[in-house]
Fold this protein.
Amino acid sequence: MKVLITPRSFGKSNPDLFAQLESLGFEIVRNDTGAILSEQAMCEKIADCEALILGVDPCNANVLAHAPKLKAIARYGVGLDNVDVAECERRGIALSRTVGANSNAVADFAFALMLAVARKVVQIDGRCRQKDWGKETGIDIFGKTLGIIGLGAVGKCVAQRATGFGMKILAYDPYVDEDFAAKYNIKKASIDEICTECDVITLHCLLNDDTRHLVNSERLAAMKKNAILVNTARGELVDEEALLDALEQKRIYGAGLDVFSKEPPEDKRWYELDNVVLGSHTSSSTVGTTNCMGQMCVDALKKTFA
């Protein structure tokens, strides 16, 4: 049997995960490209595989059609927007996710982006490396109003951190945990209310037809001039052309982005703006998180193949 492993961080700090897979009888096929696999590469590598440990690489109907032996997919993450779920169900392919494994790591990184944008940490660091000790005036985070779009596992972790910063919290989610909202004094709000009223807006929702480009030109225009947008979820949640325009014209204060619709982004303006902090889809990349996600994937495959 063969298992294709696409996430580059899988087993990086815990090689025993590979040994566990081998003990199940798997021959390991690795992603040796150093990047997210293309659809063509997925089709080539998955052809003889019975199992797949999947990162954010494409796993659409075409890819699945090239994997006639596939019995199980262990998603190394939470989102399934890169997977043809209906085709998996039709073929009886077992599909699992690592729900909850990365929540704290992503929430930490979301807060890191908020602070980096607000206090101009990247600019200050760059100036200091040039021995320029001039001051950069940022804006405050403590006591401001935070808008959380998506109050799931990660959104809840962000809310917990926000209480330590004395922030007023507004949140939107189709299914709000009422007990949690009451405990952390979270006010339920619409997306439009969040965009209008909040100083910091952070995205933690899944990507689907309803959420694609939920941050569009109209909602960006409604944001405060000193608003900060943070996205550690999916790039397609944001109309990137509209956001680039808003950042270039300083209509909002800045953005912290760990995800893009295409990674790395091709538009050179992203690399020229001084009011955006860029991430390489790295918010969940901690030793603890990668170990946990890796073990959850292996455990899921054990249920199918042991």
Summary: The chain is about 35% helix and 15% strand. The mean pLDDT is 97. The two ends are 12 Å apart (CA to CA). Residues 153 and 161 are 13 Å apart (CA to CA).
